[in-house]
Amino acid sequence: MVTYWRLVVRKTLFGSMTAAFLMLAVQPAQAQVTTSFRGFRAEGQVGLDRFQSQGAHRNKLGYGGAGGFDGVINDRFVVGAEGSYWRGNKWSENCTPGTIGGGTICTKSFEELGAAVRAGVLVRPNMLAYVSGGYVNNEQRMRFSAPRGQTSFSDRYRTDGYQLGGGVEYS
Question: How many C-beta atoms lie closer than 10 Å to residue 59's C-beta?
Fold first, then answer.
């Protein structure tokens, strides 16, 4: 069931990005505002990463990057698709004590891959106010460190989620 859902999400995202690209690529010729928010782009990102699990959270510095394609509609609106990579510095891990028999339960988050749509308004030809949203997939590990004489175990898995963002970009 999960595999089917992921396949549907991937097909839907690919179809949506293809449709957005075609709409932006096929525009009538007209006088256009000169702006740098058009075409392919790549960016580095640094910010706060919050990993939450088992009722605990950890805030760390995170970093990553994004790349995408933006198009301008009616000389005022910017719409585009982007892919992103993100990771918490030195990975993010939350550990809590086991309740029965001792031990420690730790959940660790690794990299996060995403696909999103970005839409904004040109406040000035060199200033964009935008919002973004999309799908993300994150690799995690859960580990149980048992007390002496008992069996410990570890499991890796991937989780699905969403990302929301916004900001002001100046070029």
Answer: 12
Would you state the structure tokens that stand for residue 81, as one six-digit string?
A: 């698709």
Q: Give the bridge partners for 111, in sequence order.
A: none
In sequence order, what are the residues at sequence separation of 6 or more whose Cβ sits closer than 8 angstroms to the Cβ of residue 42? Answer: 65, 66, 67
**Distance between CA atoms of residues 36 and 28, nearest Å:** 20
The confidence score (pLDDT) of residue 5 equals: 37
User: What's the confidence (pLDDT) of residue 18?
Assistant: 52
Q: Using CA atoms, how far apart are residues 130 and 15, in angstroms rounded to an integer?
A: 22
Alpha carbon distance, N-terminus to C-terminus of the chain: 44
- The reported pLDDT for the residue numbered 22 is 47
Q: Locate the DSSP E strands across 74-126.
A: 77-88, 92-97, 104-124
Contact, 143 vs 157, CB < 8 A?
no
Positions in the chain whose pLDDT score sits under 50: 1-14, 22-31
pLDDT of residue 33: 55
Look up residue 103 and give its amino acid.
Answer: G
What pLDDT, on a 0 to 100 scale, did the predictor assign at position 78?
A: 95
2: helix, strand or coil: helix
DSSP class of 157: E
SS3 4: helix
